[in-house]
C-alpha cells in the first residue's frame, strides 16, 4: 500500500517535472519507477511460484478436501500421494510445499499432478482454493511429547500371527466383520467406503452363498463399521453422524452426531477414504475413534453408549489421526498401525484408557497386499479382521 501511494505521488511530481526540466530530472524518477516495478513484480511473482506452509491442521483439512472431494473419486494415486505428504510431515520438519499457479485449472481427482522435489511435495492447487496461499512461511516441528509407560498392562497384545485369507472381494476397499456379542457365525460384508448401502451376510467365512441382504437407507462413509447385538453401527457418509441400524427391524433405530468430530477427510487415516469416524468394539463395548479440531486432529477415543449413541467419556491422545495407517480397540487399549501400505509394519502406538497412558508397542504385522483399508479386533475369536486389497483376512492375536 505504502509503495503504491508513494509511486502515485512521484508520478504527479514527475509530470510537473517533465514540463519544466525534461532532460535532467527524468532519469532518477524512471530508475525509481523501474525499481519499484521490478520489486512489485517479483513480489507478486514469488507468491505465485512457491509458497511454503506449515502443515497447519486447518490447511491439512483443506488439502485433504482437494484430494478427496466427495470421496467418490479417490484414485490410488491420490491416496498414495496424500500419505507421502503425511510421511514428510512425520519424517522431516513438517513442511509441505504448495505450488499455486495461475495456470493450474480446477483440481480433478483424476488429474491431480504431483512432483517430488527436494524431498517435499509440490502440490498444485486449484485457483479457487488460493485462500490457502500465503506469503508467510511458518515451520512446525513435529515434537513428540508423550508419557511413555514401561510396565505393560495385563491385556496388552503380545504378537500378531500371519495373515489368513478367507475369500476375495471385487472391491479393493471394504469392511467385513462378525457380531461382537451374538454367538453366531454370520459374516457381514460391506464393500467399498462410499456410494454403497448394501450389506451382504453369509453364514460363515467360507460359505460364499448369500444368506441375507440388507439395503440401508443411507450410504456409509469409510470402513469403520461394527456389528453388535444384531445392530449395525456405521458412520453416515459425509457427516459426523453415527447410525444404528437394526437387522431384525430392517430399519435405522438411532442416529447421533459425534460432537466436534471431523468428517469428509478432515481427519482420516493415511489412506483417506472418508475414514474420519471409525467405530470399534471390544470386550468392554462400543468405541468411536475420531478427531476434532480442538484436539488438533489428534486421535480422540470416545466411549459410546450403544443404546443412546451418546459419547459418555473421551480420551484425547497426541497421536495425529492422519499419521495412523489404521487403529482399533482391544481390552480398552487403542492400537495404531504404523503403515497401511507396507508389507511389514508394526503397531507402534497404543493408548490405555484405563490408565490414560501412552504405550510404545513394537508388534510386527504383515500386510500381504500392502493395501489395508480396514482393521478391527474381534474379541470373541481373539482375531483381527482386515481388508487387504479385496482379501478378507484375519490375523490371530496373542494376548496373555
Ligand atoms: C460434491 O459434488 C457435488 C456435485 O457432484 C458438488 O456440487 C459439491 O460441491 C461437492 N461437494 C464438495 C464438498 O466439494
Ligand atoms: C474434470 O474431469 C472431467 C472428466 O475427466 C472433465 O470432463 C472435466 O472437464 C474436468 N474438469 C476440469 C476443470 O478440468
Ligand atoms: C451356505 O449358505 C447358504 C445360504 O445361507 C445355505 O443355504 C447353505 O446351506 C450353506 N452351506 C453350508 C455348507 O453351510
Ligand atoms: C497433537 O499431536 C501433536 C503431535 O504429537 C502434538 O505436537 C500436539 O501438541 C498435539 N495437540 C494437542 C492439542 O494435544
Ligand atoms: C521392533 O522389533 C524389531 C524386531 O521384531 C526390531 O528389529 C526393531 O528394532 C524394533 N524397533 C524398535 C523401535 O524397538
From TrEMBL:
<feature type="region of interest" description="Disordered">
    <location>
        <begin position="1"/>
        <end position="20"/>
    </location>
</feature>
<protein>
    <submittedName>
        <fullName>Noelin-3-like</fullName>
    </submittedName>
</protein>
<dbReference type="GO" id="GO:0007165">
    <property type="term" value="P:signal transduction"/>
</dbReference>
<keyword id="KW-1133">Transmembrane helix</keyword>
<keyword id="KW-0472">Membrane</keyword>
<dbReference type="Pfam" id="PF02191">
    <property type="entry name" value="OLF"/>
</dbReference>
<keyword id="KW-0964">Secreted</keyword>
<dbReference type="InterPro" id="IPR050605">
    <property type="entry name" value="Olfactomedin-like_domain"/>
</dbReference>
<dbReference type="InterPro" id="IPR003112">
    <property type="entry name" value="Olfac-like_dom"/>
</dbReference>
<keyword id="KW-0812">Transmembrane</keyword>
<feature type="region of interest" description="Disordered">
    <location>
        <begin position="100"/>
        <end position="120"/>
    </location>
</feature>
<feature type="transmembrane region" description="Helical">
    <location>
        <begin position="26"/>
        <end position="44"/>
    </location>
</feature>
<feature type="domain" description="Olfactomedin-like">
    <location>
        <begin position="149"/>
        <end position="400"/>
    </location>
</feature>
<dbReference type="GO" id="GO:0005615">
    <property type="term" value="C:extracellular space"/>
</dbReference>
Amino acid at each position: 500500500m505504502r509503495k503504491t501511494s508513494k509511486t502515485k505521488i512521484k508520478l504527479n511530481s514527475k509530470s510537473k517535472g517533465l514540463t519544466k526540466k525534461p532532460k535532467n530530472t527524468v532519469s532518477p524518477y524512471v530508475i525509481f519507477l523501474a525499481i519499484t516495478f521490478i520489486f512489485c513484480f517479483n513480489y507478486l511473482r514469488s507468491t505465485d511460484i512457491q509458497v511454503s506452509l506449515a502443515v497447519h491442521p486447518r490447511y491439512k483439512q483443506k488439502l485433504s478436501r482437494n484430494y478427496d472431494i466427495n470421496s467418490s473419486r479417490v484414485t490410488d494415486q491420490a491416496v498414495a500421494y496424500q500419505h507421502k505428504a503425511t510421511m514428510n510431515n512425520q519424517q522431516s520438519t513438517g513442511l509441505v510445499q504448495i505450488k499455486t499457479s495461475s495456470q493450474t485449472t480446477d483440481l480433478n481427482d483424476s488429474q491431480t499432478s504431483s512432483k517430488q522435489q527436494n524431498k517435499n511435495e509440490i502440490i498444485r492447487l486449484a485457483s479457487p482454493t488460493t485462500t490457502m496461499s500465503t506469503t508467510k512461511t511458518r515451520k512446525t516441528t513435529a515434537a513428540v511429547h508423550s508419557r511413555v509407560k514401561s510396565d505393560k498392562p495385563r491385556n496388552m497384545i503380545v504378537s500378531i500371527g500371519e495373515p489368513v485369507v478367507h475369500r476375495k472381494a471385487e472391491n479393493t476397499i471394504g469392511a467385513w466383520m462378525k457380531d461382537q456379542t451374538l454367538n453366531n457365525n454370520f459374516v457381514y460384508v460391506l464393500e467399498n467406503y462410499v456410494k454403497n448401502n448394501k450389506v451382504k451376510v453369509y453364514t460363515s467365512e467360507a460359505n460364499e452363498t448369500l444368506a441375507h441382504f440388507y439395503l440401508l437407507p443411507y450410504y456409509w462413509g469409510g470402513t469403520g463399521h461394527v456389528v453388535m447385538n444384531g445392530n449395525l453401527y456405521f458412520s453416515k457418509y459425509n457427516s459426523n453422524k453415527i447410525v444404528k441400524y437394526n437387522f431384525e427391524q430392517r430399519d435405522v433405530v438411532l442416529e447421533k452426531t459425534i460432537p466436534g468430530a471431523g468428517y469428509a477427510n478432515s481427519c482420516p487415516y493415511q489412506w483417506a477414504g472418508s475414514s474420519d469416524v471409525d467405530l470399534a468394539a471390544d470386550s468392554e463395548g462400543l468405541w468411536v475413534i475420531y478427531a476434532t479440531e480442538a484436539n488438533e486432529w489428534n486421535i480422540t477415543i470416545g466411549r459410546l453408549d450403544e443404546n443412546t449413541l451418546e459419547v459418555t467419556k473421551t480420551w484425547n491422545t497426541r497421536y495425529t489421526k492422519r499419521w495412523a495407517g489404521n487403529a482399533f480397540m482391544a481390552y480398552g487399549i487403542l492400537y495404531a498401525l504404523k503403515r497401511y501400505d507396507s508389507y511389514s509394519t508394526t503397531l507402534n502406538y497404543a493408548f490405555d484408557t484405563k490408565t490414560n497412558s501412552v504405550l510404545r508397542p513394537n508388534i510386527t504385522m504383515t500386510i500381504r497386499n500392502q493395501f489395508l483399508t480396514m482393521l478391527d479386533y474381534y474379541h470373541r475369536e481373539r482375531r483381527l479382521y482386515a481388508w487387504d486389497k479385496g482379501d478378507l483376512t484375519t490375523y490371530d492375536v496373542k494376548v496373555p
